[in-house]
Amino acid sequence: MAELAARHRAVHLDFGTGDGTYVQRRARLEPSTLVIGVDASAEGLREPSRKAAAKPARGGLANALFGVLPLERAPGELAGLVDSLTVLLPWGSLLRAVALPEADALAQLRGLCKPGAALHIVFGYGPGDPLAVQALPGPAAETRRAELVQAYAAAGFAVAARPTSRAEVGELPTTWAKKLAFSNNEREFVALVGCAQ
Fold first, then answer.
1. d(C-alpha 159, C-alpha 161), whole Å
2. pLDDT cut 70: percent of the chain above it
3. Residue 144 above 60 pLDDT?
4. Closest CA to 102 of 113, 93, 92, 114
5. Which of 6, 17, 86, 137 is deepest in the core (most CB within 10 A)?
6. Are strands 188-196 and 157-164 parallel, antiparallel or unpaired?
7. Which are the contacts of 73, defined by CB distance < 8 A and separation ≥ 6?
């Protein structure tokens, strides 16, 4: 993996990539960047992998790569290779890891990154979600965001945390973002933006 990464100007990793839409769009916009999408499930990666491997004339993307990597097995072969990292609208265990947050999981994400690597995380939560992030709305929101910033700092990330509007979420180039932004569900979103220290 390091040899492949060295042939590109930079490496971007989209963790929890789902159907790979974000990876494909970013790879087209940044042909000199190796854009990697990983997910815990192989099922959703088959079609984007097939498309990326096609000839360029058929829409193939030589700089897009997909693989299975559950968070508990990270960083694996990607250790210290990543120049920028996104985790966009995760769910399940990945959502718990970045939103609660879980110290071990954040350390695994940090292990992927070079010093100074850019970090962009967006997560959402709503009524009925079995997560402690339900404490974010209301008067406790500012305190909870400060706690997130401190937890990320302890894991080696310098971040700012802020609430994010549905309109901003809708602008994220992912399939899931469009669904969430225009759903009728009562949902709040938080963005964490910063870098690895």
1. 6
2. 92
3. yes
4. 93
5. 17
6. antiparallel
7. none
pTM attached to this predicted model = 0.93
The residue type found at 19 is: D
Residue 83 tokens read as 């120049």
Q: Which residue has the tokens 């769910």?
A: 91
Distance CA 147, CA 174 (A): 28
**Which positions ≥6 away from 50 have C-beta within 8 Å?**
none
* End-to-end Cα distance, the chain: 23
Residue 65 forms beta bridges with which residues?
Answer: 36
